[in-house]
Amino acid sequence: MKTKIKIFAILITILGSFNAIAQSEIEEEIKSLSTFKWQWMADKDIDNLEKLFHEKSKFVHMSGSWKKERELEIIKTGSIWYKNAEVHDVAVEIFGDDTAVLWNRITLTAHVRGNDVENEFTVTEFYKMEGEDWKLLDLTFSSVRDTHKIEH
């Protein structure tokens, strides 16, 4: 009986290790995708952003909230030009195998209404796996102090 319990415990440990590795790989994939997203926003790369943003995605900014089409229009026209997002800290939580939440603490340099502005934000990003691709469901900017820390 003790041998069966030991074998079962070993199997549970091995399965847990595989799950941790899979979660870690998803976390890295989401972090990478978020990094690409910031660059695409800076480059006004509407084609890649169109593919990334879920059809029902929402965007919450200091000045309001809107859906995918308006966000893409804002980026394309440059009414907000996300020139640079300096990422200071990132945390990712995975829920099941198809949902991820990422928090970035950033300093955003943007061109808004004719002026370059710099703001500290924690940005929350929700992702959902659809088919073979991660889709951004929500991107919310929260204004924070530069001393704000993301709890890991």
From TrEMBL:
Keyword Signal recorded: yes
- Tell me the leader sequence span: 1-22
Q: Which residue range or ranges hold the DUF4440 domain?
A: 38-136
Q: Which keywords fit this entry according to its UniProt record?
A: Signal
Q: Report the Pfam families cross-referenced here.
A: DUF4440 (PF14534)
Say yes or no: keyword Signal present: yes
Q: This protein's superkingdom?
A: Bacteria
* Transmembrane domains' residue ranges: none
Classification via InterPro entries: DUF4440 (IPR027843), NTF2-like_dom_sf (IPR032710)
Protein's name in the database? DUF4440 domain-containing protein
Q: What is the species of this protein?
A: Maribacter dokdonensis
